[in-house]
Specification:
47% strand, 2% helix, 400 residues, six-stranded antiparallel beta sheet, mainly beta, seven-stranded antiparallel beta sheet, single chain, 1 helix
Length: 400
């Protein structure tokens, strides 16, 4: 194994390396003003101490079915994405999306990104705000001019996708990390790294602004932090990355104050073998298993991390995709681990062995469950394929 620790060169915000531009992109659009306040307990200490209720027995599950806008004149097919919550507006961003006219059955468009807002967490009903007959069809995540030029040729097209929840900065600000790929021919793609999208909500106009400071944030020379999961403790974001180059078995973590999350010079990187943080981003050509905060032999593909008051622990809930369609859970007293051995909490039998993109969201509902500790109920989402279309599915799970 060969591993190098190399400081990343930066200019303003974003990774700067050979062949990477610092082009910016921005857009703004209205989202529906649908407010569903929910309770979310955040950890007030980096080490929360002894966990409780750790048998993780599932008391009941409620299958919400597909995330769907029944009022839309279009059928919108897409894989599960990441949830953002800004001032009570709870919305999902998705990757590859196919839009079909319900009346004619004809495919209207295929777009790289889309968005829908939750009308309530008591079922899976949503309102599509980027693919409907009123607003038309558009990508909610903007492309730079260079990317737009590349997208005129199908063999060089740039694709953005995300399967992790947003990082909350404030009541009206968040960021999302999007995987960036490009086609090298009409069939094959290569991963370039991830890109950071900065979201701000104007609560008076319900207009959401989205800004990308650069085409790439973390390139593929190292781990793409933020693409797997995140958790915020005392104003510091802990951002997780899978070692995608070496078997998907290991998770690594970086940290950054949420106030400077767009500035890569303020990031630090954790080495579990030494228990130390470094300002130099690890760039490795081999597996660094001892430096990882968690490992699992089936691998990690998608997941989420949050603090559960009901368990007094940080929960890592993840999906191995394609392996056996099961959600698994690990827990720890700190974001850096050590993490427990995984336990199975839900088997996503719908669809086929192509189920993927499984993540969890820690939510409960202010108007109904105020006496219930946060984390006793969670929302699971994943995607499945049926007759060559992809669907995003939601499951409400309650622990005993």
């Amino acid at each position: 194994m060969v591993c190098r620790i190399v400081a990343v060169l930066v200019a303003g915000v974003g990774v700067v390396s050979a062949g990477v531009t610092t082009s910016t992109a921005s857009t703004a659009y209205a989202i529906p003003s649908i407010i569903n306040n929910y309770g979310e307990t955040v950890a007030t200490a980096l080490d929360v101490g002894t966990a409780v209720n750790t048998n993780f027995k599932v008391y009941e599950t409620l299958d919400f079915g597909d995330l769907n806008d029944w009022s839309n004149g279009y059928s919108v097919y897409r894989g599960a994405g990441g949830l953002c919550s800004l001032s009570g507006r709870n919305f999902w961003f998705f990757g590859q999306t196919t839009v079909v006219n319900k009346a004619t059955g004809n495919t209207v468009a295929s777009v790289d990104t889309s968005g829908t807002i939750s009308t309530t967490f008591e079922h899976a009903w949503t309102l599509d705000f980027t693919s409907n007959l009123t607003t038309g069809i558009f990508n909610p995540i903007p492309y730079t001019l260079a990317e737009q030029d590349a997208n005129t040729d199908a063999s060089s097209k740039v694709v953005l996708s995300s399967h992790s929840n947003c990082v909350q900065i404030s009541a009206t600000e968040a960021v999302g990390f999007w995987k960036r790929e490009h086609y090298i021919d009409l069939i094959s793609k290569e991963t370039d790294g991830n890109t950071l999208a900065y979201y701000t909500l104007d609560t008076n106009s319900n207009k959401l602004s989205v800004v990308r400071d650069s085409e790439l944030f973390f390139d593929t020379k190292g781990y793409q932090y933020g693409s797997f999961a995140n958790v915020v403790v005392n104003g510091v974001a802990y951002l997780y990355a899978i070692d995608v180059n070496n078997g998907y078995w290991d998770l690594h973590v970086a940290s950054v104050p949420v106030s400077t999350i767009r500035d890569i010079t303020t990031y630090t990187y954790y080495d579990a073998s030494s228990g130390e943080w470094s300002t130099s981003r690890p760039l490795c050509s081999g597996r660094r298993e001892n430096a990882a905060v968690a490992t699992y032999w089936l691998g990690f593909r998608s997941g989420s991390i949050f603090y559960s008051a009901y368990h007094n622990a940080f929960l890592l809930i993840f999906f191995a995709n394609f392996q056996d369609n099961k959600f698994r859970l690990m827990y720890s007293s700190t974001p850096m681990g050590p993490w427990s051995e995984p336990v199975e909490i839900y088997w996503s039998s719908s669809g086929s062995l192509l189920n993927d993109h499984g993540i969890a969201t820690q939510i409960y509902y202010d108007n109904t469950y105020t006496a219930q500790p946060c984390g006793k109920e969670i929302l699971l989402t994943y995607s499945y394929f049926y007759f060559e279309q992809e669907f995003a599915k939601a499951i409400k799970l309650k622990f005993a």
